[in-house]
Amino acid sequence: MSNYIDPNWKMSTLVCHGAGGSDPATGAHCKPIYQTSTFAFRDADHGENLFTGKEKGFIYSRLGNPTIEGLEHEITCLESGVAGLAFGSGMAAVSAVILGICGAGENYITTVPIYGGTHTLGQSILPRFNIENREVNCSDLAALEAAIDENTRLIMIETPANPTIRLVDIEECVKIARRHNVVLAIDNTFATPYLQNPLKMGADIVLHSATKYISGHGDTVAGLVVCSTEELKLKIQPIQHDIGGVISPFNAFLLLRGLKTLAVRMDRHCMNALKVAQYLSFHPKVAEVWYPGLSTHPDHELAKKQMRDFGGMVSFILKGGRSAGKTVLNNVKLAVNAVSLGDTDTLIVHPATTTHSSYSPEALKLAGMDEGLVRLSVGIEDYHDIIDDLSQALKQV
Ligand code: PLP
After folding, report:
1. In ligand 1, which atom is closest to the CA atom of 222?
2. How far apart are CA 176 and CA 179, in angstroms?
3. What are the catalytic residues?
4. Which residues sit with their C-beta closer than 6 Å to ligand 1?
5. Cβ contacts of residue 174 below 8 Å, gap of 6+?
6. Of 312, 333, 299, which Cα lies nearest the Cα of 375?
7. What's the confidence (pLDDT) of residue 1?
8. Closest residue (by CA) to atom 5 of ligand 1?
9. Fewer CB in 10 Å around end: N or C, the chain?
């Protein structure tokens, strides 16, 4: 039974082997689904010793479960962290990081734009608990630094950002966070550990909506957090345990399964997205294409510096604005008009009225989200078919 992992293995190898090898209890090569809520104590002393931490072992699946632990080990290994925590959704992961780091009377900064749920949490829910969310365009490093004060505890950045696919310079943010003794968390959902490793660049926490590329098949809602220190884990884990947004063993299994093909899927997503972005950028009805792999993208050089490839997400604006965008959405046949991203299948969506509908018109403008913006999550189909589909839909405009 081999449980060997070499941290120097390449990412394509780590995604296959990172869960730590065969199951110690049975030798099962794939991590079994431990579908149980509770674990029997051998005797009363055993139960007491587990609760007081004198013995290691499982008590109750909200507090720990072997399938979930396998997933937490694997994502920790892929993100080069110290401790991983798995959640029932990306938003459970986002909120656990914020609640673990910030208390009443304190504030945290998020970059603009940021996923609609993260925006709503910061603008509408957490103020009720006297936690302030300052939204700042963190590409403007001076503005980021100016927004920090003595009560700032956390900077949370999404790069590439949903849905503008703009980037933030992680290494520059690390310098600012260090200067002010503030925790830096990176939402790595769009890049995945295959394309970007923020902890290696000095960030403190990485988080994911694992619903997306990590699962990869559009069949799971889940979230992940990886901490660079045990101390940070100890701040976030009580929120996982006692607010209780944990992942189920079955969904943890699905993520472990999805991770095995992360490298091959991401290579295909990246290749297809570049082809689609190039096609759109020469189309007479398209006004703008936002894809960091295009040399015209304002963050192309930064993407080359901090990512291994440019990802599978492409946003574009049609010359006919919002109504032209709607025509495309109504006429695609292969692409599915749906929220979410990172699935094997190509998905197309109008962010201003769906994923980012919680933004006011002013906030949309401030975030650089044109009303006509259409977001494509380019799948792993044959790219000729994706392009043919867009082409026939664009003819209807
Ligand atoms: N972060 C990003 C970048 C997202 O795109 C999303 C969802 O789309 C989330 C977080 C929230 O994740 P979930 O929907 O899994 O709760």
Report:
1. 15
2. 5
3. 62, 115, 187, 212
4. 89-91, 94, 115, 117, 158, 162, 187, 189, 209, 211, 221, 223
5. 184, 201, 202, 203
6. 312
7. 43
8. 115
9. N
Q: Which two tokens mark 167?
A: 């980037």
Q: Which atom of ligand 1 is nearest to the CA of 118?
A: 10
Q: Which residues contact 58 (CB under 8 A, 6 or more apart)?
A: 39, 50, 64, 65, 66
Q: Which of 166, 211, 246, 248 to mutate to test the pocket of ligand 1 (most atoms within 8 A of CB)?
A: 211
To test the ligand 1 pocket, which listed residue (110, 114, 115) has its Cβ within 8 A of the most ligand atoms?
A: 115
pLDDT in tens, 106-130: 999 999 999 999 999 999 999 999 9
Cβ-based burial of 9 (10 A; exposed 0-12, middle 13-18, buried ≥19) = middle
User: 212 C-alpha vs ligand 1 centroid, how far in Å?
Assistant: 8
Among 233, 239, 277, 222, residue whose Cα is nearest residue 62: 239
**What b/e string do you get for 290-308 counting C-beta neighbours within 10 Å, with b at 16 or more?**
bbbbbeebebbebbeebbe
Q: 334 C-alpha to center of ligand 1: Å?
A: 24
Each residue's pLDDT tens digit, 281-331: 999 999 999 999 999 999 999 999 999 999 999 999 999 888 999 999 999
Q: Are 121 and 179 in contact (CB under 8 A)?
A: no
Query: pLDDT for 321-340, tens place per residue?
Result: 889 999 999 999 999 999 99
Cα(63) to centroid(ligand 1), Å: 23
Element (H, E) at 87: strand 83-87
Report the separation in Å between the CA atom of 210 and the middle of ligand 1, taken as the mean of its atom positions.
8
H helix or E strand, kind and range, residue 86: strand 83-87
pTM as predicted: 0.96
Coil, helix or strand at residue 213: coil
The tokens for 281 are: 């950028």
